[in-house]
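The passage that follows is intended for readers who have already worked through the single-chain material. We present the inputs for a multi-component assembly, then the predicted structure in tokenized form, and finally a short commentary. You are encouraged to pause after the input and sketch how you expect the pieces to fit together before reading on.
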Amino acid sequence: MVQRIVIVGCGVVGAAIAYEVSRCPGFEVLLLDRHTPGSGSTAAALGIAMAVSSQRVRGRHWQLRQQSLERYQELLPELESLTGQSIQRNPQGIVNLCFEADRLERWRSLQQHRQRQGYRLDIWSPAQLRDYCPHLDPGDALAAIYSPQDFQVNPQQLTQALVAGACRQGAQVVWGESVQGFETVAGEAGQGCTAVLSCGHRYPADGVVLAAGLGSLPLTQHLQAPLALGPVLGQGARLELPQSLGQPDFQPVINAHDRHLVPLGQGSYWVGASVEFPPTADLANPVALLPQAEQLDQVIAGVIAYCPGLGAAQISDRWFGLRPRPQHQAAPVIQPLAGFTNIWLATGHYRNGVLLAPATALEIRDRLLRALT
Ligand SMILES: Cc1cc2nc3c(=O)[nH]c(=O)nc-3n(C[C@H](O)[C@H](O)[C@H](O)COP(=O)(O)OP(=O)(O)OC[C@H]3O[C@@H](n4cnc5c(N)ncnc54)[C@H](O)[C@@H]3O)c2cc1C
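Having made your guess, compare it with the prediction:
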């Protein structure tokens, strides 16, 4: 019997789930979004995927990163060949500048750990950094850690390609409809959801995935099982120079003090991202979060401090987004909704939704397969 899976929310996470689930025989996928694909937090993301250079070495946090890293290697070419859409990415790795001696010790031990896991981290002296990246000023940096297996991908293009791929595999999509409720029935093992309701439409469901980012909070409130999620604002900017800085054939992503520089080619760069917490964590009375211009100015100034050539760049775009951050548990939230037998949460990815979307999708696919087939 075919199982009808309704996925609510089409950011990078919902799109990745739709893609993986629609590959499985026996599932019929419907992907719903109140706006257009990738228009939530995903629209603001820089798409940096730091797995090998993250300090997570074991447990769930590392496993999700490792699984995403591995899936990404096949996923991007697979999507390009299935859909004919190209997905911009920077495969030249990530360079992290290190300024403190105790941190450098941690990097050294991470380097050994990664080597045992089969991954590479190089530790460069400031002089080596100058050789490889002559456009950077190491300043007080003690070292630079180069992670060649980490990368960056354009989040919006990725989301579009995932949706196109899912549709090729038979998924149906509905844009511009907000999910406003659910039909549920009580059972012995818990409640079951039989349909997802938008304004004017009823979508029958055998399984439901809530991948609505911050919009997951009101949806879980409807279901009397509220998931505490709060927004953390982030800003980014696009800078333009007549031509790219540094060595033309080596343009890795750079990070210093959590200020990232993403080379896009032909003198274009993304710079980000600020991390702006709301003044109150009271989810019952959320305040409208607005971007503080000076926070982005500080990020841009921080990047120019280590990449002085960018001081001459024009800012061609500034934007912000709200990251969905779980309040009382670690990000991300990938689990059944409490009290329900066929609703799963795939949300709360906070600062790593692009990195973790493929692993999230595989975990949700496996849970659906176990529960419904
Ligand atoms: C400035 C900035 C930079 C970032 N950089 C990175 C980065 O470099 N790397 C990284 O991995 N992550 C990064 N992130 C984090 C990343 O953007 C998020 O973790 C990720 O986009 C979350 O994806 P999502 O699909 O869960 O949510 P979203 O992208 O917010 O998607 C949720 C979707 O659900 C829809 N929706 C909500 N409610 C409803 C409803 N009731 N009915 C129908 N649809 C609904 C919304 O319209 C939206 O399209 C960054 C974030 C910001 C703000």
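Commentary: The chain has a mean pLDDT of 96. Residues 59-83 form the longest helix (25 residues). How closely did your sketch match?
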